[in-house]
Predict the 3D structure of the following.
Amino acid sequence: MYNWNTLPRDVVAKGGERVGFRGENMMFVMNFISPGLKVPSHEHDFEQIVICVKGHMNYFVGDQVFEMTPGSMVRVPPHTKHHVEVLGDEIVQNMDVFPTIREDYRHLVSYQANEFGGSQEGL
C-alpha cells in the first residue's frame, strides 16, 4: 500500500508535480497542477482516462473543452491532442489512468521495483 501524498514527487516544471503507481499492465499518475502553469498540448498512441480529484479545470480533448470539478471523468482517445488549464486559484489534482506502463514514466514507479522483479528493468 502507498499514499500519493507521501510519495516523492517528480517536478515537471515550476508549479507542476506528479507521482505514479503501477500494476502489472497499467499505470496511474497523480498530477498536482498550480494555477498559471501552461501544460503543452500533446498526444500519444494509447488511451487515457482523466479523473478530477481536486480543483477546477478545463480539459481540452481534440476540439472539445470539458469543465471539470472533483468527480468529473473524461476519456482521451489514442492519437488525440489534449491538455489542461487550471481555473481559479486552487491547485488541481487530476489522476491519469493509462492501459500500459509508459516508458517515459517508469522513473515514477521505481519505488515499486521489488514488486516487479526487483530491478529497474523489471519495472
